[in-house]
Amino acid sequence: MAKMKSHRGAAKRFKVTGGGKVIKYSSHKSHILEKKSAKRKRQLRHGQVASKPDAKRVKELLPYK
Description:
Elements: H1 8-13, E1 14-16, E2 22-24, H2 38-44, E3 48-49, H3 52-61
Antiparallel strand pairs: 1-2, 2-3
């Protein structure tokens, strides 16, 4: 049987940590940045831990992790 392929769209958007948590990156950071405050843009730089139901779905799309 062939290896499972990872979902390339999910692979570009999520990262699985060594402990098994799923990190998701923030949206709203690519354009229309003038009206957003510096604090808001600074906070959007960092990833966040995905919720348990979302993490379960992401792990199905990234079978090698």
